[in-house]
Design goal:
single chain; mainly alpha; 2 strands; 2% strand
Length: 210
């Protein structure tokens, strides 16, 4: 698999944080932790072929395009190019796919800040691939993690919607993400929230579930 080692991935993220500090880095770490936990549980139930360590690296780097500065949706392309140029095509792929649980370039929150030719490249790229379990896993985990920690998907979705607004594809995107959650829960045989610490506290602002 064409992905960096863990130490390389951590170095990439550390450098990116210096270039563009922000809550996106903590979010990325939580995405990585969730991806590893779900992948490990899938293996434990003998129903998954995901590598937990690879899932962690992919989660850690899914937003690495943020290294280029404060941008909108072009971060998916910046991340793809950054990792693909170094030969890490499988990790680069996750930079491109993580925002598209519903595979349509209109299914975004925020704005496209790419040139027309760049947007055409992204559209063609998405049209030319079939999603893997890694794609779906990172799409799921991206919807479970805020900078503060793990939350109910609904809170993460509302947070993004309030910050960026919604469009005609929002409901389709949310439905696709909930379907991914359902699919992974069928594999692991339990709620994904059972694997993630702090969901109640981070979602409702409580401690010890009270």
């Amino acid at each position: 698999m064409q992905i960096p080692t863990l130490s390389q991935a951590e170095a990439f993220l550390a450098e990116a944080v210096v270039l563009n500090p922000g809550p996106w880095a903590a979010h990325s770490t939580h995405v990585a932790v969730a991806a590893r936990a779900i992948a490990a549980r899938a293996i434990a139930t003998q129903q998954g072929g995901l590598d937990p360590d690879a899932a962690y690296v992919m989660g850690l780097l899914h937003d690495i395009g943020r290294r280029a500065g404060v941008t909108g949706m072009r971060h998916v392309l910046d991340g793809y190019r950054y990792l693909a140029d170094q030969g890490y095509e499988d990790a680069a792929r996750l930079c491109m796919t993580h925002s598209f649980a519903y595979k349509h370039i209109g299914a975004i929150f925020g704005e496209w800040d790419c040139r027309p030719d760049e947007l055409a490249f992204i559209e063609a790229y998405l049209a030319g691939i079939e999603y893997t379990d890694y794609d779906r896993l990172i799409q799921l985990c991206d919807s479970l993690a805020m900078a503060e920690g793990f939350v109910l998907m609904e809170k993460r979705m509302m947070d993004v919607a309030l910050r960026y607004g919604i469009n005609d594809f929002a409901v389709a995107k949310w439905k696709a993400t909930f379907q991914i959650k359902q699919d992974f829960e069928a594999v692991i045989g339990r709620s994904i929230y059972d694997l993630l610490p702090g969901v109640v506290e981070n979602t409702f602002g409580t401690r010890d579930g009270r």
